[in-house]
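Q: what sequence does this backbone want?
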């Protein structure tokens, strides 16, 4: 069994991280020294001066830990878009359009979270399962309920997950059902302020591992007064902001009809687009929208699996990255039918290739695709799922560098029931990471550390 903590210890490991987009840094027998607060103090490679001395000193003092043969260290995954209350319907209700899905299935489910026993049961299972899947940081939408959202905060702290949590604001009586919405503009705004105060004042959160998020569900569910008030709160508190932007033709068209401008333009005028804003989906961004996000240093949560079911479009990930936008990867539970960031890495690669090559066999090859290079590979997907998502959220995680928190997972390529098959004569260097990204399963995820502390072990 692993040590319950790696704080004030040194780990000898091989693995991979991707601090730079499109590049994989292969780590072989590196020494990672972790400090008293879970921060990485030093990363020393065998060719670095002082390596032998550092390894000997750690071993002599009993502070050296080793990964077993066949195990590889990866940064923990950063999931930039999760609807926490929707976990009970993961894999269900995927056969209808977004607007039907919300009214028929999702709002009734989210309304159940006024039952606090139900909320604790569902949220406990979700957070534990995400950690076991290697998700060390998650950006959560909760519900309109203050008490249930506080329970989600408590559970993240209890289980050790790094998280950002927002009480959903949705108050428009024309689009939200009477049984599930904020009763008024004041209720939406005061509830948001109360949640911010709860998170920041939580006695179990001295390190700020859980952060509050201003969370307008999306423009179709909020009155203009609420959007204006939330923008003012975000400016006052310096909190993160999360919402949905131009997800589907219906959602995109609704905003154009109501406001006469795009989601991005509208949110920007309300003060909701900034460095700490995470905008989910963004499939139908205009060129001007992308420029606004770049200038504001806002981020996009790319949700490739969910987009296949509800968006009717593919987010141009490569174009966004080349433009310099911050982009993270999101499972979009439960619009996306998998809680695995690995499956969403695969989907990101797949949809990027389909966007480039096209899908209609009735068209000739030269007219079938987008006409521009849009494909990414496993290197880009791995970066977006780790360091890219962390940078998008402006958090010191996602890579193994001094000053960053030691949030990490072990991939056991020899795990019983695992799905990775490595061949000594074929698989080397970053090729091993490629096999991990494309073939690893939950059974291959062993120990999970967050801030240097073990939060899950042996799958």
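A:
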């Amino acid at each position: 069994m692993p040590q319950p903590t790696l704080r004030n210890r040194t780990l000898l490991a091989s693995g991979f991280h991707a601090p730079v987009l499109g590049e994989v840094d292969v780590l072989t027998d590196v020494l990672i020294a972790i400090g008293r607060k879970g921060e990485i103090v030093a990363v020393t490679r065998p060719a670095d001066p002082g390596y032998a001395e550092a390894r000997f000193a750690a071993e002599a003092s009993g502070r050296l830990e080793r990964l077993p043969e066949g195990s590889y260290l990866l940064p923990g995954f950063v999931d930039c878009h999760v609807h926490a209350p929707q976990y009970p319907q993961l894999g269900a209700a995927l056969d209808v359009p977004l607007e039907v899905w919300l009214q028929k299935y999702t709002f009734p489910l989210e309304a159940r979270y006024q039952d606090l026993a139900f909320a604790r049961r569902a949220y406990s299972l979700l957070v534990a399962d995400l950690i076991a899947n290697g998700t060390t940081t998650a950006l959560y939408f909760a519900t309109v309920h203050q008490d249930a959202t506080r329970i989600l905060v408590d559970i993240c702290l209890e289980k050790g997950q790094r998280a950002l949590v927002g009480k959903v604001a949705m108050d428009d009586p024309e689009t939200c059902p009477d049984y599930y919405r904020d009763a008024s503009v004041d209720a939406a705004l005061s509830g948001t302020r109360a949640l911010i105060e709860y998170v920041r004042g939580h006695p179990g959160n001295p390190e700020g591992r859980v952060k509050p998020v201003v969370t307008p569900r999306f423009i179709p569910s909020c009155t203009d007064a609420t959007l204006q008030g939330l923008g003012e709160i975000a400016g006052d508190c310096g909190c993160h902001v999360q919402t949905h932007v131009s997800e589907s033709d219906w959602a995109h068209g609704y905003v154009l009809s109501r406001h006469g401008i795009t989601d991005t333009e509208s949110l920007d005028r309300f003060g909701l687009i900034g460095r700490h804003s995470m905008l989910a989906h963004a499939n139908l961004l205009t060129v001007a929208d992308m420029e606004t996000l770049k200038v504001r240093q806002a981020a996009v949560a790319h949700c490739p699996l969910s987009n296949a079911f509800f968006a009717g479009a593919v987010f141009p990930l490569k174009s966004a990255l080349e433009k310099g936008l911050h982009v993270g990867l999101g499972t979009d539970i439960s619009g996306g039918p998998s809680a695995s960031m690995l499956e969403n890495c695969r989907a990101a690669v797949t949809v990027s290739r389909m966007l480039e090559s096209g899908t209609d066999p009735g068209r000739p090859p030269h007219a079938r695709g987008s006409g521009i290079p849009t494909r990414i590979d496993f290197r880009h997907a791995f970066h977006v799922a780790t360091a890219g998502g962390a940078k998008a959220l402006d958090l010191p995680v996602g890579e193994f560098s001094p000053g960053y928190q030691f949030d990490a997972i072990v991939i056991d390529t020899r795990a019983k029931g695992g799905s990775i098959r490595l061949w000594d004569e074929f698989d080397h260097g970053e090729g091993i990471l490629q096999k991990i990204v494309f073939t690893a399963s939950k059974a291959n995820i062993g120990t999970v550390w967050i801030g240097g502390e073990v939060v899950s072990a042996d799958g």
